[in-house]
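Summary for the lay section of the report: proteins are chains of building blocks that fold into shapes. Here we show the chain for Protein FAM162A and then a coded description of the shape we predicted for it.
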Amino acid sequence: MGSLSGLRLAAGSCFRLCERDVSSSLRLTRSSDLKRINGFCTKPQESPGAPSRTYNRVPLHKPTDWQKKILIWSGRFKKEDEIPETVSLEMLDAAKNKMRVKISYLMIALTVVGCIFMVIEGKKVRRGFFSIQYVCSPPRT
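The coded shape description reads as follows.
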């Protein structure tokens, strides 16, 4: 019983130390420019006239012939004439990912067909093996 109470005292002192560290970090947060509203910390609002440094322009890329084929095979466009001169990199990535999925489904189907074919061929060989064994065995006397 003595070790259990000692363990409880050690856990309690550890908890108090952690609590003290958390409360000191909260004091630092409260003294900065963050506002505490309903338990949430929010940054002060910037003025609406301040210039934004983010650009909404998407970089465009001129697709190669291979990338045009991928865009057509993935179903993004029906004909090569429909593909614009420049496309976004996100569109190319989405088409490549769609092609990867289609190829993986094809590989799964081919693997299943190959397994079934090998089972059938194995049964044929086994059947032939046993028939040869009975024919070639010496007659019993």
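Put simply, here is one thing we learned. The chain has a mean pLDDT of 75.
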